Records
---
Amino acid sequence: MSDPVLWELVCVRCAARYPGLEVRTLCGCGGTLDVVHALERLKGVVTAQTFDDRLGARQGVYRSGVWRFRELILPLDDASIVTKPEGNTNLYEAPRVASYVGLDALWLKHEGENPTGSFKDRGMTCGISMARRLGMERVAVASTGNTSASAASYAAQAGMEAIVFVPEGKIAYGKLSQALAYGARTLQIDGDFDAAMALVQQICAAEGIYLLNSINPFRIEGQKAIGFEVLQDMGWQVPDWIVLPGGNLGNNAALSKGMGELLELGIIDRLPRIAVVQAAGANPLYRAWVSGEPMSPVKAETLATAIKIGDPVSFDKSMRGLRACGGVVCEVSDQAIMDAKAQVDASGIGAEPASCATVAGIRQLVQAGVIPAEARVCGVLTGHLLKDPDTVVSYHRGSLDGIASTWANAPISVGSGIESALLGMRRG
Ligand SMILES: *Cc1c(COP(=O)(O)O)cnc(C)c1O
Ligand SMILES: [Zn+2]
């Protein structure tokens, strides 16, 4: 049979405890749940070397950039684990982008290089494996696109039925194509992501379907591996800052939780500071952060559809993590996001709009003197360039509403002859 259950679910608000295998996404009090591991028994047993020894595994679950850190993710038995494998993404040194943001050096962890093109795969392998462990046959998500692509793919691999709820007409084409192609039942709702999120929670509760949004605490466990892998990539030298975009806020909550656990185990000796970047039109965390007031939902509007979320489910976890690591929150305009994206793309790396909020945010924080030029900074690029081809082409054609195409590289039509082709090549 399976390994003993070595984790519990603990409410973030009231500290109520639930058994590790209970199918439950929220506490009775309405708070979100943490997976709490029995870390004590890992002290001195699991070290950086444990994880380094698994690098280069040719087969089995340790090929995964998530399951390589299994003891800290979820100590599941091999038979439950559904992996592609995911992770093992590049950490690029990006001098051109560094000079754009005003840093001496900058590292970009490209999570768009995951199997379905976003970091969601790291959470999804964990969520789907848990679904298998629990014997679930149907899974569901609400999504701005990437979660649906990832859930659809992993469910197909696991032989489960996936049901995805997306806001009609509001998700990028690359992502919608994936959900359809991987065979998910795709329900387009007349409403935004926040409405889809509320709906999917009701439907999962009523129908006994396993919910795979990041409100599911096991998703968060898998996503911690972004931070673990960054550290492993950097030889376990803690960067000064890790910067990432914030939408539903699961990813930054995962990052801070994972770093706290590494610190507790003595694998690192200090925490990196975390900066969360929101789009100015979808900024409930930023507002709460500057006002000190409780979060109030906003009506979200931004070109960066992956972070177009006005009522984030992981707000409590996110705040807790930011306080623990001396974190900061900033907001950036869509213009700043698209300018940063043009720079990331033209450097040959490339990423989808929401990912480039990271770079726009770093630039703002450097200009404001929050991040010094000599700091060691790692930015997380969350999704692949090809996720949202329409926004890219419109930007380069100069036809994005309300956005100046600062670094447009428009296609040039040259007919069919050599003369006009040569003219096109030389045109300024
Ligand atoms: C999901 C997603 C985000 C936002 O992450 P949260 O955990 O919801 O804050 C950012 N960028 C991309 C590309 C995403 O897919
Ligand atoms: Zn509670």
Note: The longest strand covers residues 161-167.
---
Amino acid sequence: MFDHDVLIVGGGLAGSRAAVAIVQNEPGLKVGLISKVHPIRSHSVAAQGGMAATLKNVDTEDSWLAHAFDTVKGSDYLADQNAVEVLTRSAPDVIIDLEHLGVLFSRLEDGRIAQRPFGGHSYRRTCYAADKTGHAILHELVSNLFRYGTKVYLEWYVLQLIHEEGEVKGVVAYCIETGEIEVIRAKAVLFATGGYGRVYNTTSNDFASTGDGLCLTATAGLPLQDMEFVQFHPTGLYPVGVLISEAVRGEGAYLINDQGERFMANYSDSHNKMELSPRDITSRHIVQEVRAGRGIKRGPFVHLDVRHLGREKIISRIPFAREEGMRLLGIDCIDAPLPVRPTVHYSMGGIPTTVDCEVLGVDRKPIPGFFAAGECACVSVHGANRLGSNSLLECVVFGKRAGEKIGAYVQDRPMPTLEERPYVQEAEKLIKSLLNKKGTARIHDIRTALQDAMTEHCGIFRDQQSIQKGLQEVQKLKERYEKDLNLDDRGTIFNMELMAALELRSLFTVGEMILASALQRRESRGAHYRSDYQQRDDAQFLKHSLVYLSQDKTGIETNTCAVDLSLQTVDPERFMPQERKY
Ligand SMILES: Cc1cc2nc3c(=O)[nH]c(=O)nc-3n(C[C@H](O)[C@H](O)[C@H](O)COP(=O)(O)OP(=O)(O)OC[C@H]3O[C@@H](n4cnc5c(N)ncnc54)[C@H](O)[C@@H]3O)c2cc1C
């Protein structure tokens, strides 16, 4: 058994920022960071467009309050306004912190940090490093991690969260290189495990975004919040789904249908802001154009056109988007428009936390020893729809807060006691049972069928019938996984097939929880659009949903998940709900 004062799961922006905060403030603490991929390869490295903060370098009349209002309106009024206040008030300081750590942001002529417009933001406030912002930030954070001597468990996979006697005591982990299983005990565990884009068949997310942290939390008997809100980014490159950053529209790109129209003008909720409307609205309109037969050559995509920006602007501001078009499709956007369609991008829901990143249990009380931050957490600053460039911000603001909170928290907390043996035995049994799978179905086939079912039945538009169908299909696929899976590689050294089998468990759990939550929310809000309930219904549903894995199989309308929409009313505090138009 290994011991740490603090164990951080995840080396993306949230996990690394937390680790750096702890080692800087409390150098005496023994901090461990565990990651199934090298931290530099966490999905955060792929973030492109930037990070919002009211530095007022470009638009001097901007304010944190305007940023807060935009965020709450963008969230379709579901965000917790106290958490949004923390996010937006802290934003300028965390950017300066990053700069002091060594992050190189793009500049204005006079040397100050540049800021660009982004969807749903009413001022130019997104700070960026060309269109490779995540790369610039994560590299600095990770080199600081190593500089301060944090113990990093490289390519270890967390199999289980140890939650007993009402508190979290550590994790069970598997070393991908050697097959070794270890219990890692800690006074505090922080989950910063990122999103779950791989539950769907078309996503901007990396292969490792399989929602493991969400699955492990649910399996430990804890609830997840607002899982029905899945963000589709409007401009995934067709057909691959790889992201073309919102920075491209921020810099002035047009969305064009087959008739050559800038179609966003034709919809009442987007005719002012046009291409810079928020993602939920823009994604829906692209799909509506395609369904009306106005996709390019009647195909399932529209065009993203930047030709009018000119060569110089394209090369200096959005070089990566250009590279992606050339590398993946052989199209140079200087000369021709890019084909795009919505792609699954971000998870608004997740592990419910306080503004100090303490994880909330069934009774809405913090679970001793357990914290979460970043995309896997639901604090909730994004409510039903996240604004672009608010996620990197969330990771850094709440990662840092988590680090500060945990650094103080563990000072008075004794090392928890636990018996290691049963956990190791259980993990050995799990690995052995997977290695012994000798059915006929390949992981790839089952995973693709699951991703197709989720995309078909719980995509941008959904209704009761489709969701129920989705739940049935997921059940069937789960049975196939249990009874008929086959693994070819039966070794324990770098067995990536075994990893894929473990990740597929996470995809099933997360998929079911999305479906079960989507079924219960009988209204349309933000990214959750029910064709059978097209209006937002504040009287009944200005509430967070909580979903549990039910032990007794008495869950509502699904035999494995129970959804509770009764308790978590959102208090509007500062900004009262209004109709959402852009
Ligand atoms: C292509 C793309 C572009 C984006 N651009 C922007 C942008 O410009 N602005 C913006 O605000 N947001 C952007 N986002 C969103 C933003 O990048 C992410 O929400 C954010 O980076 C998530 O960071 P994180 O630290 O929460 O998780 P991640 O960076 O995803 O890291 C997750 C970590 O958890 C570890 N992990 C997971 N499961 C396990 C396990 N079982 N065992 C061990 N380790 C585990 C992984 O190894 C990894 O280190 C973008 C997202 C994508 C996909």
Note: Residues 422-543 form a domain with the Methane Monooxygenase Hydroxylase; Chain G, domain 1 fold (CATH 1.20.58.100).
